[in-house]
Every structure is written in structure tokens, then in C-alpha cells.
Design goal:
By secondary structure, the chain is mainly beta. The chain has two helices and 32 strands.
């Protein structure tokens, strides 16, 4: 990164010459922005150095013990805010040998500060020297005609109200700068010459919006980019290039799009295709209700230099192809519709198994009948095999005279059946219900379910219920005094990370309920106290707790 020095030269009337030097006034590797206060302190802190009236400074005879603020000829003061103020230089008259003239050297710094670079500034308002020195005028001048025989130099803070050509000697930067003063003064836009890159540029700065508008034509030789020519980071929307057709009539015979060209070997531009957004409806003025603003998208390819439409996507989302459709992969669609004008469909089949769908939530719909031919063997796993539910809005009819649903097993009479006097109903909401009582291994079954022999399971047989406490005292469970005498509860209570478990044995004599809670354990705090009582014809298990958010899980066995 570059560094830029700054010097101040002073000369008195009697010819005394002094100089002050600030090495690395700006170091772009550390500071790209200086406040007015920073610049002021660097100027006043400039150290005494040898007097050298030239652009390049050798750096000799530097005296760090004497700074610019110690001199009695020229003072500097900060006017305005600490951030965006200005620096004012004032000639002093405290010495007999007063200040005659002073100069600033360091073009990068002077241009930034708005100071004249390498130009003598005289204390006198008007100075007409007899020798070859320049005549000096300070203040306003109203001149009818001015002829310049040498260079016209504007200080960095000068204003220009004229058509002025800028002469570039490529030795230093030359910029017209637009300074944004809303916060910290910043260069928002600059136009001019960059000597380091030997490039003429118009550039905006980060943090500011720069627009070029109202241009009828942009004539460039090439547009090149090391990355994206159009790039915009957009969160919550789309990064879009907008191309408009400004024709305002209501016709649908027009579109807007992008056209592509290639050059032949003779250097002539030839058609290479285009993408057009056409109108499917009229675009009425003023956003009139019930007026459609519909458009299609057309894709063209070129054959022998002629663009021909190959695909049109309508405003309704219908894709219309001109030509064949081929795919090296799958063609996937929700519906397959054959137009009535199609008189012939060529179908090809292959032997082997066919799979429809690839996920469990796929749906395949058939309108009409489906015939499946399979092996006639009852014990062969063929025909219609369903790994899941079978649903029908109408009856599922079994053509056998018995109305049997055969199960694949070794016993021919294994069946699930429905009859007017009894049977099994399978319902997705209610589970398995019976018409009448169900007996397993029993011809006589007076109860809803009668099992001859043991009931076993490879997993748990669960009858777990959950009750959420709604107040400090809640009924957890009840059982009828006319049906059951004794009940055993396995109880679990949770509240946040706390837990309590116990067993309780309850019995009743129609008038009173008796209980014994035992084997109670908890994680450090008793959450619920359980009691029992007879209320009307029910025995109630009551939970009392100060923790209203307790959840009670229980399993009961009743006799």
C-alpha cells in the first residue's frame, strides 16, 4: 500500500527559509479515511526539516524537537467539527521579519485537503514584483478577458463554472470528486485519471448508490468481465435484468426478449436463436379490475439462419413443443392425457417386473377396471400383493360363494368373514371391532373377547393412560363399584425434569374405599399425594399437588 508525505515551506521578507515535514502523512495500509482532527494534528505535529524547494525530499537535517506549531510565522486552526471540519492557515505578525510567502508540497495530500500544490501563497493581497516572480492577486476579480501563457492550476477546493478541458500529464492523478457530507466526508463518485493504473475512470464508492440513467445509446467496443457481468446479492427476492417493450397499444402482436447472434467466417452476424416474452392478452391501462395481464414465453432455435419457435410456455403453464421430445432420463408427470385427435399410440413393453413410484407417499390412480392374472394356487404368493392398507369408497366384493377372504396359510378354512349375525370389522379410526362377541379357541364366548388358553406377546401388553393435572386436585381415574372390587395401580408422575413412581392397591365395599400406596420413589421431591373415595357408584383415584403442570401416567389391573 502507498504512503504519501507532506511538507510546508516558509519564507520571510528578509529571506529566512524554514521547512516542516510529515513523513507518511497518509499510510493507505493503515488509514484510508482521516478525520479533520487527524489531519490537523498531523500538520501541526510536522517536524522541522531542511529547506528543499523541490518535489522529491531527501529527508536530511530533520529536527524532531521543533514542530510546526512552534513557529511564529504561520499558524493552523481547525474550523468546524472534529470529523468534517476544515483547516485554516493564518499569517502571524508577531515578528519583525514577517512571513512573505508559504507553499505546500505533496500532491496527494494537498488535493485531499483542498490546498494548492507546489504553488507559492503570498501574504500580500496584491503583489507586483519587478523581477520574474509571479504577480499575486488575492480576493475576487472581475475580468473581461484573460490570456494565460502558462498552466492554469486550481487548488483542490476551487470551484469551476465553465466548460473546461482538463490536461493530463499522466504524472499524477486528476479527478473531479463528489464528496458526500451527510456523515463522515466520503468520496461517493469520482471521474478522472488514475496515474497508477494509467486508466480513465468513472467510479462509485462502496456504500453509495450510483445510477447512470436517461441514456439513449451506449457505444462500447467490448464488454468484458472477470466474473459476472450482472451480479446482485438478493435475499428474499430475485436478482433480475428487466427488458421492456415500451409500445403502449393493446395488441398482442409484440413481445420482448433476448436475441442471440453468431458470426460467420466472413464476419457477418447471423441469427442463433432468441427467447421472447409474448402477450397472451391485452394489457389495459390503470390496472382495470378483471383485465388479464397474461404473457407467454417463446424459445427459438435457428436453422439455416432462420429463427423458428420450438417451445412455447403459455400463461396457463402449458408447454407446447414443435418437434420431438427425447430424454436420456425419466419423464415424470402427475397425469398422462392423450388428445382425441391422436389416432395411433405406439406402446412398447418389456418383460420382467415393473415398479410404479419410488416413495411411500406416491399415489397411482386408475379409472376403470384393473384385471390381474396370477397363479391359481392358493398357497402361492402371487396376484395382488399389498404391503399396506386397502381402501375403497365402495364395497370390496369377494366372488367366492362363502364370501371368504383367504389367508395364506396351511389351514384351508382360515378366514376373516362378515355375516349378519357376527363378524369382524376393520376400521382405520376405530381399529378392530366385532359384531357380537369374539371367541378365540372358544365356541362359547359370553364376553366381548373370550380366549381359551394363554395370551402371550413378544412385546409388551400395554394399557397406559395419561392424565394432565389441571388444578391442585384432579380425578386421575375411576372404576365402577358394581363391577369391580379391587384395583392395582402402577403410577408415574413427571413435572419438568422431576419424576415420582409408586404402586397403589385399592379396594371398596360400596360405601368406602381403602388404599395402600407402597414402593414410592422420587427424584428428590414428592410431586403428588394420591387418595381414594367413593363418589356415587364410582371409586375415584384423586391426585393432589401444588405442581399443576404434573403429568400422570398409569397402568391398572382390576378385579
Amino acid at each position: 500500500m502507498a504512503t504519501y508525505d507532506f511538507r510546508i515551506l516558509l519564507e520571510t521578507v528578509e529571506g529566512k527559509k524554514t521547512s516542516y515535514y510529515s513523513s507518511s502523512f497518509v499510510d493507505t495500509s493503515n488509514n484510508l479515511i482521516l478525520s479533520a482532527s487527524d489531519a490537523y494534528h498531523r500538520i501541526t505535529g510536522s517536524i522541522s526539516a531542511s529547506y528543499q524547494n523541490q518535489t522529491i525530499f531527501s529527508g536530511s537535517n530533520v529536527n524532531t524537537s521543533f514542530t510546526f506549531k512552534d513557529n511564529t510565522l504561520l499558524s493552523a486552526s481547525l474550523s468546524g467539527s472534529q470529523e468534517t471540519g476544515s483547516i485554516v492557515f493564518t499569517a502571524l505578525d508577531t515578528e519583525y521579519d514577517r512571513l512573505l510567502r508559504y507553499k505546500f508540497i505533496g500532491e496527494k495530500v494537498t488535493n485531499t485537503l483542498g490546498l494548492p500544490s507546489d504553488q507559492w501563497i503570498y501574504v500580500d493581497q496584491v503583489r507586483l514584483p519587478a523581477d520574474d516572480e509571479a504577480n499575486i492577486f488575492q480576493g475576487n476579480a472581475n475580468l473581461g478577458n484573460v490570456v494565460l501563457t502558462d498552466t492554469l492550476t486550481f487548488a483542490g477546493g476551487s470551484d469551476v463554472n465553465s466548460d473546461v478541458p482538463f490536461l493530463i500529464d499522466t504524472g499524477s492523478d486528476r479527478y473531479v470528486k463528489f464528496i458526500d457530507e451527510r456523515g463522515i466526508s466520503s468520496v461517493a463518485l469520482r471521474m478522472g485519471y488514475d496515474s497508477d493504473a494509467d486508466t480513465y475512470e468513472i467510479s462509485g464508492s462502496t456504500g453509495f448508490t450510483t445510477k447512470i440513467g436517461g441514456i439513449d445509446e451506449v457505444n462500447v467496443t467490448n464488454i468484458t468481465s472477470s466474473g459476472f457481468i450482472f451480479s446482485k446479492a438478493t435475499d428474499g427476492g430475485n436478482s433480475i435484468i428487466t427488458i421492456e417493450n415500451s409500445n403502449a397499444d393493446n395488441g398482442t402482436d409484440k413481445g420482448v426478449g433476448v436475441e442471440f447472434k453468431h458470426y460467420d467466417t466472413a464476419g457477418n452476424s447471423k441469427n442463433a436463436g432468441k427467447i421472447i416474452a409474448g402477450k397472451d392478452s391485452n394489457y389495459a391501462a390503470g390496472g382495470i379490475p378483471n383485465v388479464n395481464y397474461d404473457s407467454n414465453l417463446q424459445f427459438f432455435t435457428a436453422i439455416n439462419g432462420t429463427d423458428t419457435e420450438r417451445l412455447r410456455i403459455t400463461s396457463q403453464g402449458e408447454a407446447r413443443f414443435t418437434g420431438n421430445i427425447s430424454a436420456s432420463g425419466d419423464i415424470i408427470g402427475n397425469r398422462y392425457i392423450v388428445n382425441s385427435t391422436v389416432s395411433n399410440i405406439t406402446q412398447s413393453f418389456s418383460s420382467g417386473s415393473t415398479i410404479f413410484g419410488d416413495t411411500l407417499n406416491d399415489t397411482h390412480q386408475f379409472t376403470g377396471s384393473v384385471f390381474i392374472t396370477a397363479s391359481n394356487s392358493e398357497n402361492t404368493k402371487m396376484g395382488l400383493i399389498v404391503d399396506g392398507n386397502i381402501s375403497s369408497s365402495q364395497n370390496i366384493i369377494l366372488e367366492e360363494s362363502e364370501g371368504k377372504l383367504k389367508l395364506n396359510g396351511n389351514v384351508n378354512d382360515d378366514q376373516i368373514y362378515y355375516a349378519s349375525t357376527g363378524g369382524i370389522i376393520l376400521d382405520s379410526n376405530e381399529g378392530i371391532t366385532t359384531i357380537g362377541n369374539l371367541g378365540i379357541g372358544e365356541t362359547v364366548h359370553p364376553k366381548p373377547l373370550t380366549v381359551a388358553g394363554d395370551i402371550s406377546a413378544s412385546g409388551d401388553i400395554l394399557n397406559t393412560q395419561i392424565v394432565q393435572m389441571t388444578n391442585s386436585s384432579s380425578v386421575i381415574n375411576t372404576f365402577n363399584t358394581g363391577s369391580f372390587q379391587t384395583c392395582k395401580y402402577l403410577l408415574q408422575v413427571t413435572s419438568a425434569s422431576k419424576i415420582q413412581s409408586s404402586e397403589m392397591l385399592v379396594m371398596q365395599n360400596s360405601s368406602n374405599a381403602f388404599n395402600a400406596e407402597y414402593a414410592q420413589i422420587n427424584s428428590g421431591l414428592n410431586l403428588i399425594d394420591f387418595t381414594t373415595e367413593v363418589n356415587n357408584s364410582n371409586v375415584e383415584l384423586i391426585g393432589s399437588s401444588s405442581f399443576v403442570n404434573c403429568s400422570v401416567k398409569f397402568v391398572r389391573t382390576i378385579i
